[in-house]
Design a protein that fits this description.
elongated; single chain; 155 residues; mainly alpha; 67% helix
Length: 155
């Protein structure tokens, strides 16, 4: 199911990939998956991706940095961000570099997420556990969650 132009001609994989990148950054694996799903052959896909990379139009490093920035703005934690980047085919080394390069204090991030969602630490163990689950779902580890619970509502 290749995409066609108005004149009936097929759009080359390279042009299709450029159109994808014009909207937002994509990882190499995301572009490859989408192009293959659209019916492009492996050779054409790899050639297009190599050309995009050589021209600096596609970069997994740049994608990773932009992705981390966007997720940090949503107050997500490092575990969730890492898992989503792995799903998008990013190498573990690039993920680690992007998370470290972001310069985020994850405990402060967790505290902000918690304070935005809840008025306080909770009146009983059930409410406390609810807040812990919330932070775990956002991608914060146990230590970050414990510290956030202790400091989220301080002025």
């Amino acid at each position: 199911m290749r995409t066609t132009r108005a004149d009936g001609g097929e759009i080359p994989a390279y042009e299709r990939a450029v159109a994808m990148l014009a909207r937002r950054e994509h990882s190499r694996a995301e572009i490859a998956l989408r192009l293959r799903r659209d019916g492009y052959q492996d050779e054409e896909v790899n050639q297009a991706l190599d050309e995009l990379e050589s021209l600096g139009l596609q970069s997994d490093e740049r994608f990773c940095e932009a992705f981390v920035r966007a997720r940090v703005q949503r107050l997500q934690g490092p575990r969730k961000i890492e898992a989503e980047l792995r799903e998008r085919g990013i190498a573990p080394g690039l993920i680690a570099a992007a998370l470290e390069g972001a310069g985020i204090d994850w405990e402060t991030q967790a505290s902000q997420a918690l304070a935005r969602r809840f008025d306080g630490p909770g009146r009983d163990p059930r409410e406390y556990a609810q807040r812990q689950r919330f932070l775990a779902g956002r991608g914060f580890d146990g230590e970050q969650s414990r510290r956030a619970m202790a400091h989220a509502w301080e002025d």
